[in-house]
Specification:
38% of the residues lie in helices and 14% in strands. It has 334 residues and is of the alpha/beta class. The chain folds into two domains: 18-47 and 153-326, Rossmann fold, CATH 3.40.50.1100; 49-152, Rossmann fold, CATH 3.40.50.
Length: 334
């Protein structure tokens, strides 16, 4: 792999822990379940976006940027970590968030304000549709803006998860464990593309399984095609001669429910069960849905006792405070 020349800033604490969830596995009468704790990356209460931002913001600095722009939902974990990373690097930060300005700021949104970023409300446009106008405005003000893509999902963001899989493989070998599946929340595509490419480079035998979080599309391209295209362009970036197709992609859309950010019984049970068996917090939008998918796959027999599952915790617990109305806090672990 040829990416040592690509600049990288140190923003998080790595490697993140690899732990086994023995009590959750026993409760489900299922396979061994391991967890990669990217909720412990250290930047602004953690999350997987820290990995991506180490490469992306290094590129921003290399290009002489003084202002960072990115977009997301009002409770975006990516935006919270971008705001924190920008503050730590002395960069001005602008967030273009979906929805309307609320009367009360909580969860990730409260942290965005604490980190001192400027927030621009974009109504239905939570994926950066309004960013071009803001770029021109800031340029006219004499700024040097740099746009971080939605979810940090470009080639540099995906590259971070090629490196992350190398990190995981080192940990796996050190404890003599084996995995049949790596399962995670798949939403903006960068994590998924990077893990696909990392698996190919490392010749890893396990399946890379993304649990789809969002019904929407990315840049008007079907999400599956976007992930495959990003895996291919990331391979090209680092000089790897791989060509991915839809046949290489596993994207499970069985658990999307009512759509992005809508909490149902699946997410509620996963959050409660994981908290009450392992003392680990999942978030209501991403990891709650992805772990809910894992639980349902175990119960339906798609995952069985001979399997060994690695669940990649991508962070997001601060959003729990903003989604309290949709959480069933009376629920006991099944």
């Amino acid at each position: 792999m040829q990416y040592e020349h690509i600049p990288r800033e140190s923003l998080g604490f790595f490697p993140t822990p690899l732990v086994e969830l023995t009590k959750l596995s026993k409760k489900l009468n299922g396979p061994r379940i391991f967890m990669k704790r990217d909720d412990n990356t250290g930047l602004a209460l953690g999350g997987n976006k820290t990995r991506k931002l180490e490469f992306i913001l290094a590129d921003a600095l290399a290009q002489g940027a003084d202002t960072i722009i990115t977009a997301g939902a009002a409770q975006s974990n990516h935006c919270r970590q971008t705001a924190a990373a920008s503050a730590s690097l002395g960069l001005e930060c602008h967030l273009v968030l979906g929805g309307m300005e609320p009367d009360h700021f909580d969860g990730n949104l409260l942290l965005d304000k604490i980190f001192g970023c400027s927030i621009h409300w974009a109504g239905k446009n939570r994926k950066g549709e309004d960013i071009p106008q803001l770029v021109e405005q800031l340029k006219n003000e004499g700024k040097k803006p740099y746009v971080v893509p939605y979810g940090g999902s470009n080639e540099l963001g995906a590259l971070a998860f090629v490196e992350a899989l190398r990190e995981l493989e080192s940990q796996r070998l050190s404890i003599n464990a084996s995995f049949t599946h790596i399962i995670f929340a798949s939403s903006s595509g960068g994590t998924h593309a990077g893990l696909m490419l990392g698996k190919k480079i490392l010749k890893a035998p396990y399946q890379i399984v993304g649990v789809n979080i969002d019904k929407g599309e990315t840049d008007k391209i079907p999400f599956n095609q976007y992930i495959v295209s990003l895996a291919n362009s990331t391979a090209k970036l680092i000089g790897e001669n791989y060509q991915f197709s839809n046949a290489d992609l596993i994207l499970n859309s069985d658990y999307v429910g009512e759509g992005y950010g809508v909490i149902g019984a699946l997410e509620n049970e996963a959050i409660s069960l994981t908290a009450q068996t392992e003392g680990i917090l999942l978030d209501p939008v991403y990891t709650g849905r992805a772990m809910g998918g894992v639980i349902e796959m175990i119960r339906s027999g798609k995952l069985n006792k001979t399997d060994s599952v690695l669940f990649w915790h991508t962070g997001g617990a601060p959003a729990l405070f903003a989604y309290s109305d949709g959480l069933d806090v009376t629920q006991k672990g099944m």
